[in-house]
Amino acid sequence: MTLTNELVDWTFERKCEKAVEALARNGFPAVYCKTGQEAIDYIMGEAAEANSIGFGGSLSVVDLKLAERLKELGKELLIHSAPGLTPEERLAIMHRQLNCDLFLTGTNALTLSGCLVNIDATGNRVGSMLFGPKKVIVVAGRNKLVNGTIDEAIKRVKEWSAPPNAKRLGYKTPCASSGFCSDCHAPDRICRITTIIDCKPRHTDLRVLVVNADLGL
Ligand code: SF4
Description:
Elements (H helix, E strand, L loop, with lengths): L2 H23 L4 E4 L2 H12 L4 E4 L3 H5 L2 H7 L3 E4 L7 H11 L4 E5 L2 E3 L4 E5 L3 H7 L4 E7 L3 E2 L3 H19 L5 H5 L14 E5 L7 E7 L6
Parallel strand pairs: 1-10, 2-3, 2-4, 4-7, 5-8, 7-10
Antiparallel strand pairs: 5-6, 6-9
The protein binds iron/sulfur cluster (SF4).
């Protein structure tokens, strides 16, 4: 590892720890993971008791290759983006995610004051984060940290998450070609629901893993 990488890791470690402390103050069980592998180990441990596992469509979770590992354990995986599904089947899986044993997702932004900020198009991902699943684990890579206000967190999402996600999902939005948000009103607009989770939802076992690695968008 180069000295530069060492110092970057150290800087992010301080910020991750600050986020974990703030999340704990806001009532979330929060864990610092030094590496992606530590996050994988935590999730695999928590998944042992779960039969049905929902995936919010997050690249952070894809980056950790969790679906492959959980499938080997014979878990029922609820993945609405699986190839070959009809629109009706996709919708049915999204509904089932709302009541699964364990829901896995990333977050579009995490402020150092311990708030989770997300922008969604359909609402299945953010809906499942709030209420329904027996357990929710949010994986927050260090690239999601925002040392600022909720408005700055939303700005991060519009600058760094939404345009590449629109491109990834093949939507016809201005940002999918320009790379910049123009606050469009395109039929394919993916920014339709903004959620701010500023304290742990009362009846949801929502845990946050803050990982010292770049994960997702
Ligand atoms: S509002 Fe429209 S242009 Fe802006 S990020 Fe969302 S989908 Fe893209």
